[in-house]
Amino acid sequence: MIKRYLILIICSGFMAIACNRQLDLAPENTLIEKEVFKTADGTDQALAEAYITLVRAATGGISYTLGDFSTDNLNHSTYFNIFANGETTADHDEVVNLWTNYFKAVNVANNVMANIPLYATYPLEKQNVFIAEARFIRAYAYLDLLKFFGDGALTGKMDGRGLPIQLTPFKGYNTGDVIARSNNGAVYAQIIKDLEESIPALGDQQSNELKTRSRATKGSAYALLARTYLYMGRYEDAVTAANKVLEKSPLLYDLSPTLLALFPANPDGTTQSLTKEHVFAFPVSYIVSSSTTFNNNLGNPYFFKRSFWITNTLLNTFEPNDKRRTELIFKGDQIYNTQQLNDLTTFKFNNSNGRDNVPVIRLAEVILTAAEGIARTQGVTQTAVDMVNKVRNRAVTGAVPYTLNTFANATALTDTILKQRKLELAFEGFNRYDLIRTGRPLQNPDIPAGRKVLPVPQVEIDISKGLILQNTGY
Asked: Per the database record, which ranges form the RagB/SusD domain (predicted)?
């Protein structure tokens, strides 16, 4: 299954059988749905397309980097000013592509879910696994869309304008198949429903280690559920979901013993193994064939520092001897970009051609999610303190562990956990959304609340004849 995920990405549609085109509209000269979904192998290929479409959405354009370059983690070129300042327009290509690419992932997942019951002739148990994986993909896409476009979705505004909830294959605007935006609460409810319904069919592991780290499993579904609850402010539920992942540690999930094992040097763009810390990752270093090399869209803008370079504010936030500073930050390009030769960049995506794997859910995130949830609901507890120590102690050489007496109250502990999230997950696309959900300022502290989400593409509003409404800040 993973082999097709990684190798059949060799044409513009990423599949030699033209599955993407066929899944959308079933044009002539492509395999019809009945042939594709009749067998487990054919369905596997269709599901591979769903995963790759999600990779494209989640790493393309500004989708992965917005979480950092709009905060005090990164300096950036002037191109990104409008996004950092909340001044982007509803017809900007980045905004249109972000919306379109994620809904492509939703639609391919919907096609998989719709066609398996119609045409599959292989065992029902296997059908249910494929459907569960497609549900996970749809849930992931919708959670990302919500953090980008959900008006107040990260600040508890459950009646704010969310997203169109598309649960069946989209047949086209001319068919009347246009759906108004549901509110944020309804979208969150659908994400939770998809994840909860996927979990019973998913296994703890797939058939090999690579598949386990790069395809949906019970662990990745619970981890995404924990993130969802955290963004909703449902902290007890976030702890419950996170603990479902943590109870599989250290047998199935564990922190990597060193940071460089997690983010290895990769100057030649060779295949890099995923580790037990990866609950879910995009295995970009594996995605290569004789005709295509996949790019994570991160290596070039980070390595050459023409787009992003690290702020002194972030550098000064690290403790002395923090390996996240000494090992995972470097100078990058020392030849081509003379204006930024002395500036620093992240080592997490150190291959200049974008051949590094992309972490999506790491165990460190899950640990810190659980710790934050405990701190917010139970106060200063030994369990929460132990969790934050586990993440910090790996990074900080000679760190004196925190104790219960370190923290005067739950607020102090929560602030420390949020600081560890900032440092641990830097450049992995989290900081913006943590700042918004906790009421802290972005890089531009004067952005009004309504501009902390992106505008809905104007084309969607126009083609729906106003059924789809714009966000209130635009």
From this structure: 348-442
Asked if 95 and 455 touch (Cβ cutoff 8 Å), the reply is: yes
What total number of domains does the chain contain? Answer: 2
Angle at 65 between CA 102 and CA 239, to 5 degrees: 75
Q: Are strands 345-346 and 329-330 parallel, antiparallel or unpaired?
A: antiparallel
Measure Cα distances from 61 to 82, 89, 222, 412, 460 in Å: 14, 15, 28, 36, 19
**SS3 of residue 332 by DSSP:** coil
With both helix axes pointing from N to C terminus, report the angle between 363-378 and 410-424 in degrees, rounded to the nearest 10: 170
- Among 448, 446, 375, which residue's Cα sits nearest to residue 413? 375
61 with 179, same domain: the answer is yes
Query: Which residues have C-beta within 8 Å of that of residue 134, sequence separation ≥ 6?
Result: 47, 50, 109, 110, 112, 113
Reported confidence tier of residue 176, pLDDT bands at 50, 70, 90: low
Query: Within a domain: residue 235?
Result: no
Instruction: Residue 365: count other Cβ atoms within 10 Å of its Cβ.
Output: 25
In the chain, pLDDT over 70 holds for what percent of residues?
92
Cα–Cα distances (Å) from 258 to 153, 261, 324, 462, in that order, read 36, 5, 10, 51
Tokens standing for 277?
A: 């810390």
DSSP-assigned states of every residue in 152-166: TTTTT-TTSEEEE--
Give residue 448's pLDDT: 96
Tokens 């395809």 identify what position? 215
Q: Are 379 and 369 in contact (CB under 8 A)?
A: no
- What pLDDT is recorded for position 111? 96
Structure tokens at 356: 């590094």
Same structural domain for residues 192 and 244? no
- On whether both 18 and 114 belong to a single domain, the answer is yes
What pLDDT score does 382 carry?
98
Phi/psi at 345 (nearest 5 deg)?
-140, 175
Closest of 172, 175, 176, 111 to residue 138, by C-alpha: 111
Instruction: Choose among 468, 469, 366, 379: nearest CA to 424.
Output: 366
Range of the domain at 148: 1-202
Looking at the structure, tell me whether residues 173 and 254 fall in a common domain: no
As separate numbers, helices (DSSP H) first and strands (DSSP E) second, the chain gives: 21, 8
Can you point out the beta strands (E) in 40-101?
74-76
Domain end point (choices 151, 176, 202):
202
* 3-class SS of residue 14: coil
In this prediction, residue 177 carries a pLDDT of 75
Q: Are residues 103 and 162 in the same domain?
A: yes
